[in-house]
Amino acid sequence: MSNYKLYELITSQDVRDFNALPSRLYKGNKNWVRPLDVDIEKVFDVDKNPLYSNGESIRFLLKDNNGLVVGRIASFIDYHTCNSTGLKVGGCGFFECIDDYDAAKILFDACVKWLEDKEMEAMDGPINFGPRHENWGLLIDGDYLPNYGMPYNHFYYQAFFDKYGFKQYFQQYTYRTFLIEANVSKLVVWKAERLLRDTDYQIKMYSEVDKSRVVDDFIRVYNEAWVGDIPGIEAMSTNDGEALYAQFKTVLDPRLMYFAYYKDRPIGFFIMVPDYNHIIQRMHGKTNALAKAKYMYHKIFNKPTKALGQIFGVVPEFQSRGVDAALIHRFAKECFGGVLGYDVLEMNWIGDFNPRMMHLMEYIGGEKYKTHATYRKLFDPSREFIDCPKI
So what's the pLDDT on residue 192? Predict the structure, then answer.
């Protein structure tokens, strides 16, 4: 007889239990940051998450015989992208569990059954039902304070995924560099200066860009640079771009956002934001009046010293010309040396399937600081497992 019972989330109390469980599992852990409850819940809000227009999700809680919540997980399907690799793939995420494989197996089994009933053939996890720069991957190396939106988890989770038959589909690296001139490669300076001798090329800080076209420029570069090369990446719509821009604007430092143009055509961007996770850690997942007051106080008196790289891209036609170097060089001239109050840059989400971006990190003295893994579980174990293709 099992020591645990599985429940599907139905009531508002179930939702509160889902969000509260990690606080107990990570009690006393100095590096864990409770995500804001509103950030988690918007993922599962059919009115706020556009993926529900052609997708669905389910959430589970696991309780012991005394009614204590000991685990949680979510499963979801994005029907737009689920077959992008020739295999019908659903997802699982938001996994948290006590240190007991039997409990973890019940949670994984529930997701597999739900996905199989909907004719899926595999499951990726832990992933997000939404953009990749949030809630994506299992932390397997780098016990440090996470960046905003990035997962932090117990390291015993890796053994659970391995034992259940998940295999690593790809790894995502967070690179870290100190913003000092010595870390800027001379090759970057040479490439940037060579490119910019052609006055048809321009690198503009956010404050220099026509604000009426920022969203359109971002969407154009994103769709040309990212869609098609990486399985599972959908083209960004105007609504999606505006929603992401609205999110960025709440934490925007205009000195941390750069666009590249050729004859007024947008061809690249380097977008960073201040990392406020050290302040969010003090809010304990809440956004009530007291939590907001804490946030505003520390935003003024405990300013971030870390810039967080969100996304970097150059459209294929202009790659290998030095546009990436020119973006980095402009950023270095503006921000290196601590003149803006930032002394560290961390670049999230550099996939091992993207050797070009990994090489680019060497240009600014970046070193691997954290590693997350995205796993895939094939429901038919006799089927050949194929790694994520390289770009």
Answer: 95
Name the band, by pLDDT with cuts 50, 70 and 90, for residue 288.
Answer: very high
Domain ranges in the chain?
A: 4-170, 180-342
CATH tag, 4-170: 3.40.630.30
pTM of the model: 0.91
Q: HEC profile for the chain?
A: CCCEEEEECCCHHHHHHHHHHHHHHCCCCCCCCCCCHHHHHHHCCCCCCHHHHHEEEEEEEEEECCCCEEEEEEEEEECCCCCCCCCCEEEEEEEEECCCHHHHHHHHHHHHHHHHHCCCCEEEECCCCCCCCCCCCEEEECCCCCCCCCCCCCCCHHHHHHHHCCEEEEEEEEEEEECCHHHCCHHHHHHHHHHHCCCCEEEEEHHHCCHHHHHHHHHHHHHHHCCCCCCCCCCCCHHHHHHHHHHHHCCCCHHHEEEEEECCEEEEEEEEEECCHHHHHHHCCCCCHHHHHHHHHHHHHCCCCEEEEEEEEECHHHCCCCHHHHHHHHHHHHHCCCCCCCCEEEEEEEECCCHHHHHHHHCCCCEEEEEEEEEEEECCCCCCCCCCCCC
> CATH for 180-342?
3.40.630.30
